Amino acid sequence: MPSDRRHKRYRFRRLPSLSILAVLCGSASAQEMLPTIDVRSDAAQTADVTPDYKVNRVELGPLGKKPLIDTPFSVNTVSEALAENQQLQSVREAFRFIPSVQGENVRPQTRGLQASVVQNTRIDGLNIAATTDYPIEEFQRIDVLNGIAGALFGPAQPGGTFNYIMKRPTADPLQRFTGGYLSTGQWLAHMDLGGFADPERRLGYRLNLLDQDGASYVGNSRLQRQLASFGGDIHFSPDTVLETNASIYHYKTEGLPGTFAVAKGVLFPAAVDPTRVGYGQPWGGDDNTTTILSGRIKHDFNENWSFSAGVSRNTSDRASTVPTNTLINNAGGYVTTAATTTYSLDTVTSNQAILNGRFETGALKHDLFLANNGFSWDRYRPFTIGALTAGSASLDNPLTFPEPNFPDFKDRYRSVNTLQQSITLGDTIALNDQWSVLGAISDSWIDTNNYNTSGGVTGGYNANGWSPLGSVMFKPRENMTTYFTYANSLQQGDSAPAGTANQGDTLAPYRSNQYELGAKFDFGRFNLNAALYRIERPYAFTGSDNVFSVKGTQINRGIELMASGAISDEWTVHGGMTFIDPRLYNTGSPQTDGQRILGLSQFVTNCLLEYHVPTVQGLTFSGNVTYATNRPTDYANISFVSGYAVLDLGMRYAQLVADKRVTFRLDVFNVTDLHYWANVTPAAQNGYNATGSATGTLGAPRTVRASLQVNCEDPIYRSRLRKRRRSGDDCRLTGLSRGSRGADSAPAGLRGRKHARSPHCDCRRLYQGDGPEI
């Protein structure tokens, strides 16, 4: 059994009361009267992403909330509705629906460029540690800005900006209960509550509770997830609101397949059966607890000027005992080890303040921002570190081994501290109705110190620099934007991985450059976005001298295409493709110079199609295909792993039962039970090791997920909604009257469309289970 020293962690109580609350929700909610419903406020809340996954607006840090079509960047979104309909359980699973993102068992990254632990990942715009997984159940959506954005957010790797948007209190009562089952033997219970706690609607709340436990897909394996997440809004006045968040998430796995690596001169093998006992160890896995505390004040001075300021505290406490199976010969023999060099605790304290204003100077219209953001990041490492050898086996005959003597992961010291702060300034200037320009720049300071076990400083650096950005946008017509963007960003240096002569040292900052040409189309119910880019950055790796340092240049060229929305009343699509040519130059070695970057497919596509059966109200079928071409497993491009095509199929059926909306969902993932390498990465995900080889993660086998969801909104509110539906009042989402033609105030593309046939109409989709949640 696992050592108690590794598992002295906060534990959630089981949540059997979820099912009881689901039964009682109708009677409980019927006892309180609701104030008059503000139709406009709810429409504003649900319009950012439509029920058909079309993105209307995104949040881009100091730029604020912007229409997607008016942004000179490649931005992709996975919405709450998509995650719920596909029964996703983590942010990493959501990344599958964005072809430009690599996020399976690695820190999230875009365009084939490694992201940093903290600089590239945020919750509500505030930095967090990306070392552990996050539950999708506490987020309203995931926004991903591909490429470089240092002028907006401060120094960061060119691997994109990931912003997880927390669920906010709902304008109308929300009482949603979900019970789920996985074919491996896991049960899940999830409760999502929202609304206002007072008649004056000043105190909003959103509460998410999750409990999942049971066997996973390998014999003797297990998966546990528990979440408690609360979001509260305090409306001091119509112009001022305080947004708060508090959450704790526990994630534990045991017995799942470990990672695979190869010794020097050994070729990477074909993917093996992930369900076979012995590729993982009963004692090996992750035991992580992640907490978030945050607050943000927002104030509108008037319709043109606003201010917001926020702080957050994020902790990522983990005990990682995932085994690594290193192949030592081409016959499949391997040695199983478990490293204890992983940082066991990351703490991030983040801050942000933004002033936004709109004004005119003559014929020019300005959209100005001035912002300050940064973080303090501490990393803690166990006093006892090293690699523990568990035993030897082979791919044909995998074995389980006794548990090694792991250290107490909580017996640790602060190894690294990083302080980063940036002042950013930018302005979007509309020259006329068709042409506009965006200019932004940040001035940043980075201070890093490395410490030994006694607390003495062993190294570090202090640096500062500028990160500029410039864009030109042209709108040949209202629903189309073309743009060109240049960005240059300072970035924190990489850290030397374990086993190198300078392990733990952080390299001095360096710079990346990006050129991007793009076009965006908004067809009302459907988005189409395309981008062409070139990114260049210094590349650090471990050479023959066993010193980790900058020894080359990475240049990635690529094309992205993304589409989302309703292509007809019956069909919905969310998908895209990316072609990327990632190369390494200036290595000083003819074997690696000009070769493809390790682990990246040159072509990746993901396409989700949904069919809403017109003859059976509430019935929807879905199919999702992910395809990726082969990937090199070394920098000389001698060895490759095969590409893969994974098919997922699903259905959902929603109807009103006893005045409650009940939705049944059934999904089969990896229908063909394909054995494949889900991810191939450089060793330590930081440059590559002296052998120039990779580590690999197996894809999950065929699994089935089924769930039953009950929405217990207040029956008085539902009665009012029905009355509006019968009386012909305006639709809550589109602003269209029943059976009437769209007014000028309706969203672009819905004008002139009959209300009753619009799949965006909440009054119609409410009864199908596909509409925006109440």
Write the layout of secondary structure elements.
Elements: H1 17-29, H2 39-46, E1 57-59, E2 65-67, E3 75-79, H3 80-85, H4 91-94, E4 101-102, E5 109-110, E6 121-123, E7 126-127, E8 139-145, H5 150-153, E9 161-166, E10 174-182, E11 186-196, E12 203-215, E13 222-237, E14 240-254, E15 259-262, E16 285-300, E17 305-320, E18 324-327, E19 333-339, E20 345-361, E21 364-382, E22 387-394, E23 412-430, E24 435-451, E25 457-477, E26 480-491, E27 510-522, E28 526-542, E29 548-566, E30 571-585, E31 595-596, E32 603-612, E33 619-628, E34 631-632, E35 640-641, E36 644-657, E37 660-669, E38 677-682, E39 694-698, E40 703-711, H6 715-727, H7 762-765
Parallel strand pairs: 6-9, 15-18
Antiparallel strand pairs: 1-2, 3-8, 4-5, 6-7, 8-9, 10-11, 10-40, 11-12, 12-13, 13-14, 14-16, 15-39, 16-17, 17-20, 18-19, 19-22, 20-21, 21-23, 23-24, 24-25, 25-26, 26-27, 27-28, 28-29, 29-30, 30-31, 30-32, 32-33, 33-36, 34-35, 36-37, 37-40, 38-39
